[in-house]
Amino acid sequence: MAKCLVRHIDGPAKRLLVSLFVGLCCIPMKAQDNPFYFGLRTGSSNFWSSEVMAVGEGVVNQLIANAINGAAVSYVSAYNYHYMDMSSSQGDVKFSRNNPYGMTAYDLFNDLEAGVKAGWQGETAPIGIGGYVCYGLNQYHLRFGGDEGYGSYKIQSVRVGADITIAPWPWMREDYGWCPVAEVGATYVKALSCKTPYDSDASQANDGLRSRYAIGVQLGEEGKFCLLLSLDMAHYDLLNGNYTPDGGITHPYEGFKSKDMNIGLRLKFRLFEE
Q1: Are the C-beta atoms of residues 210 and 163 closer than 8 Å to each other?
Q2: How confident is the model at residue 18 (pLDDT cuts 50, 70, 90)?
């Protein structure tokens, strides 16, 4: 499946990904004496914005790691597929999916987050833990039954989450150069604003929990790189069915139900001195 996803990455995208690897690996590194890490956390469902932010994140996080003799952990997104299935009392709700390699504002600034993270990840430990607080931005082009065209829905939020990384047989990295790895995490999303054709009231959006699951492989004796196939899903409906813009006369999202998930291929970096 990973091969099928990689086929979607064009020539310039592949070159950018390679340059990112090289750039991060050329950052001066010290030996890891401290298994704790602290730094920036960024992300996006778009390949281009994800990679650009990852360069800045990687540089800052490695400089912090050098200062505290700690670990540096960064992610980049190689591919993302955003699946949504929505309905309301008006019938099915149409969703215009963003292009993970597109260059429009709707493509570039979607499922975007930026914040800080901290955690513990030893070089040879079978388990790592981490937490983070981030600002989040999501955009949706939706068409409800009866609408003439697609409306723009932009939700800004704060996200608070934690995750666990499990590499149960770390000795395999030394013997075979790789080992299986799994990650599980949860994020609580609190809407700060929700700009729609009706209003900018945050109460239009629901708050709730998202969960993440990933499986993959760690590569190298210290597990410096991970290739992960991930699933991120929401456990709440995106829009508030009880919202009314006119004191109870109308409820534009009445009966709204949604299934929202991202399926992606991610690369994870843990850089240490040889």
Answers
A1: no
A2: very low
Q: Assign 190 to helix, strand or coil.
A: strand
In whole angstroms, what is the distance from residue 122 CA to residue 142 CA?
44
pLDDT score, position 11: 53
What pLDDT shows up at residue 78?
Answer: 82
Assigned token pair, 198:
């009706």
Cβ contact 98:45 at 8 Å = yes
Q: Count CB neighbours of 6 within 10 A.
A: 14
Beta bridge partners of 126: none
Burial 144-165 (b: 16+ CB within 10 A, else e): beeeeeeeebbbbbbbebebeb
Which stretches within the chain are classed as H helix? 2-6, 11-25, 47-68, 105-108, 171-176
One-letter identity of residue 167: A
φ/ψ (deg, to 5) at 60: -60, -45
In the chain, beta strands by DSSP E? 36-43, 73-88, 91-96, 112-120, 127-143, 151-166, 178-195, 208-219, 225-234, 257-270
Residues 221 and 212: their CA atoms lie apart, in Å, by: 26
